[in-house]
């Protein structure tokens, strides 16, 4: 069988038997998959299905009760996240990963200017030329369609859609290889969602980012992802190509999810 | 004669869990080959499984059995049950699909919708947009519409945008699901010409067309799908 050659041949992130239990309650059971560079994976399921718990374990914010997550560092070596030193963890959080929260207030500093929100990530990785930082920040604001005239305003003066776009700029400015997104369009008006989705889709394509997107919205999965994992009661019950899972759902629960979408 | 697609004994059944788990057999024993430069038309009444077969080849539908081999990067590669990465890679480099309906992405201009497959294949943006414009012009989409998202277009215009998107690529296998369904005579003729040009370029095509006249013009061979009827 012929496969792609080059760096995308090797997985960027590997989850192996990930489990999280709270006493007798298993929030996430035995999840395994590999994510390749440039690949967008959607994790779908209703509230309480374990998808957010899984995302937290994948992004090293929550220690698993069993199993492990490995990540290919920039030197090409696949490393167990639990074994990383503090400097390496910092590198992932500040540079090589992005994390887009559903609530932008969690991912932004609401009282400092938009420019500083974006520039801060650059300063954290050692940039110290004010002019260059400001220039890079403005070019990112433009890319996420925020009027440069608003660069000195704090995000608390922004609309919900603008805050979410600013959060995306803040995450992408360090050119991460992997971005985690937790319900990135949740809580936004439908028209604002469409604009945000379109923006995320083109940025992911242009930058060749890998992304793991948690969403309960199958339309978001359809538009953004290559692959889907459907979760129910802490388990992955179905997985595959996005259009295959959505056009030809196999499991009863996936059929229920797909049939519950209102036609456009 | 280079075989580009070889379907062997492919089978598909739907299980409808929400309807008490009833099973709907769709097709079984699907076997046929398509060579480079050939257009094979699938024939049979509505509901015989023609579109399902195209979807099985493209990978939107899973196969319950059999093999679907395509010539991908020089080697026959089985896509039935293949890893998502392999299927995605085959879609970028080998198989294109022209469906009846455009799944429009909000806010993306028609020109970019058409150019996108070329960009994905690594063609430079300028060249991709030039080729997209040329094809849209050929399909009689006025230039003033190119910068607008196709979601605002009429049904026929959307279909032509979709045809342009499907035909713009240099992929060696194309699946055509009623490409002329709601087009007027002039645009049907354009599509017939596009198909002829693809044949000349050695592209293997599998098509569904209901119009007898179009079938006459494009089919090198027909495959009768009713022979793959699944026993209920």
Structure report:
- The complex is a heterodimer of chains A (264) and B (232).
- With 264 residues, chain A is α/β, with parallel strands linked by helices.
- Chain A is built from 10 helices and 10 strands.
- In chain A, the strands form 2 sheets. A 6-stranded mixed sheet of chain A has the order 6-7-8-3-9-10, sandwiched between helices. Chain A has a 4-stranded antiparallel sheet with strand order 2-1-4-5, with helices on one face.
- Chain A starts with 12 loop residues before the first strand and ends in a 5-residue tail after the last helix.
- The N terminus of chain A is likely disordered.
- Chain B has 232 residues and is an alpha/beta fold.
- In chain B, a hairpin with a 2-residue loop joins strand 4 and strand 5.
- Chain B starts with a strand and ends in an 8-residue tail after the last strand.
- The chains are: A alpha/beta (264), B alpha/beta (232).
- At the A-B interface, helix 7, helix 9 and helix 10 of A face strand 1, strand 5 and helix 2 of B.
Can you give keywords for this protein?
heterodimer; A: 264 residues; alpha/beta; six-stranded mixed beta sheet; four-stranded antiparallel beta sheet; 38% helix; 24% strand; disordered N terminus; B: 232 residues; five-stranded parallel beta sheet; 7 helices; 34% helix; globular
Provide the fold topology.
The complex is a heterodimer of chains A (264) and B (232).
Chain A: E1 13-22, E2 25-35, E3 40-44, H1 51-58, E4 66-72, E5 78-80, H2 86-96, E6 97-100, H3 104-107, H4 114-124, H5 130-143, H6 160-172, E7 178-182, H7 190-207, E8 210-215, H8 218-224, E9 227-232, E10 235-241, H9 242-247, H10 252-259
Parallel strand pairs in A: 3-8, 3-9, 6-7, 7-8
Antiparallel strand pairs in A: 1-2, 1-4, 4-5, 9-10
Helix pairs in contact in A: 4-5, 4-6, 5-6, 6-7
Chain B: E1 3-16, E2 22-35, E3 39-43, H1 50-58, E4 65-72, E5 75-78, H2 84-93, E6 95-98, H3 110-120, H4 125-138, H5 155-167, E7 173-177, H6 185-200, E8 204-208, H7 212-218, E9 221-224
Helix pairs in contact in B: 3-4, 3-5
């Amino acid at each position: 069988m012929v496969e792609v050659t080059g760096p995308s041949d090797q997985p960027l992130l590997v989850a192996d038997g990930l489990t999280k239990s709270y006493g007798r309650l298993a929030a996430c059971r035995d999840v395994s998959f590999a994510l390749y560079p440039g690949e967008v994976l959607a994790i779908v399921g209703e509230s309480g299905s374990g998808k957010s718990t899984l995302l937290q374990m994948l992004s090293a914010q929550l220690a698993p009760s069993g199993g492990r997550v490995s990540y290919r560092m920039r030197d090409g070596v696949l490393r167990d996240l639990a074994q990383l030193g503090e400097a390496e963890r910092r590198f992932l959080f500040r540079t090589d990963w992005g994390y887009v929260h559903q609530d932008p207030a969690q991912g932004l500093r609401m009282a400092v200017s938009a420019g500083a929100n974006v520039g801060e990530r650059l300063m954290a990785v050692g940039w110290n030329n004010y002019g260059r930082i400001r220039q890079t920040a403005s070019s990112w604001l433009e890319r996420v369609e925020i009027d440069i005239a608003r660069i000195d305003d704090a995000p608390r003066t922004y609309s919900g859609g603008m805050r979410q776009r600013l959060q995306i700029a803040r995450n992408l400015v360090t050119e991460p290889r992997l971005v985690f997104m937790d319900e990135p369009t949740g809580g936004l008006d439908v028209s604002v969602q469409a604009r945000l989705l379109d923006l995320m889709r083109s940025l992911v394509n242009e930058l060749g980012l890998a992304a793991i997107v948690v969403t309960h919205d199958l339309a978001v999965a359809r538009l953004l992802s290559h692959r889907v994992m459907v979760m129910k009661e802490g388990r992955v019950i179905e997985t595959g190509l996005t259009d295959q899972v959505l056009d030809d759902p196999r499991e009863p629960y996936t059929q229920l999810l797909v049939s519950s979408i209102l036609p456009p | 004669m280079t075989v580009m697609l070889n379907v062997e004994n492919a089978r598909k059944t739907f299980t409808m869990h929400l309807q008490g788990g009833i099973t709907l057999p769709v097709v079984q024993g699907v076997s046929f080959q398509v060579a480079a430069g050939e257009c094979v038309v699938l024939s049979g009444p509505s509901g015989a499984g023609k579109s399902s077969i195209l979807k099985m080849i493209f990978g939107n539908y899973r196969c319950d059995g059999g093999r679907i081999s395509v010539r991908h990067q020089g080697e026959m590669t089985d896509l039935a049950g293949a890893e998502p990465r392999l299927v995605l890679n085959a879609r970028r480099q080998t198989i294109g699909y022209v469906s009846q309906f455009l799944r429009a992405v909000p806010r993306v201009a028609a020109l970019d919708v058409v150019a996108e497959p070329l960009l994905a294949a690594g063609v430079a943006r300028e060249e991709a947009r030039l080729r997209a414009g040329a094809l849209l012009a050929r399909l009689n989409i006025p230039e003033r519409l190119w910068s607008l998202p196709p979601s605002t277009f009429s049904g026929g215009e959307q279909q032509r945008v979709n045809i342009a998107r499907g035909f713009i690529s240099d992929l060696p296998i194309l699946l055509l699901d009623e490409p002329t369904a709601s087009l007027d005579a002039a645009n049907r003729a354009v599509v017939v010409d596009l198909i002829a040009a693809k044949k000349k370029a050695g592209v293997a095509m599998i098509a569904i067309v209901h119009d007898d006249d179009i079938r006459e013009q494009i089919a090198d061979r027909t495959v009768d799908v009713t022979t793959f009827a699944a026993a209920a």
